[in-house]
Design brief:
108 residues, alpha+beta, three-stranded antiparallel sheet, two-stranded antiparallel sheet, 30% helix, globular
């Protein structure tokens, strides 16, 4: 290992994008997170996130979501952090889409 003083000179392979996303409430997403439940209220014509829960196990996130008696709440989960982030991006797009929210209103 070559160093210049105390600084390594070889390229470090560090993924600096692990915290590339925040929740809709502005909280950081831990790299161990595999599931997120948004507790929402439907306020025509959009969903409003009032609280959120982050989970390290996607199946526990699913169980929590299934036991919330609020049909407006939303879930994103994945078996890997990358899959979870991909699902969360889709959910963020949907929540910010008035047509999607209006269609969801038919089921609330």
């Amino acid at each position: 290992m070559e160093t210049a003083g105390s600084t390594p000179v070889w390229p470090l392979n560090i993924n600096l994008n692990l915290r590339e996303m925040n929740t809709l409430l502005g909280n950081e997403i831990d790299p161990l997170t595999r599931g997120l439940v948004y507790l929402c209220e439907y306020r025509y014509p959009k969903l409003v996130v009032v609280s959120e829960l982050q989970f390290v196990d996607p199946y526990i996130a699913l169980e929590a979501y299934a036991n919330i008696p609020n049909p407006a709440s939303q879930l994103a989960r994945g078996n890997t952090h990358e899959n979870f982030l991909a699902e969360l991006r889709k959910l963020h797009e949907h929540i910010n889409n008035p047509e999607w929210c209006e269609a969801l209103n038919n089921y609330l």
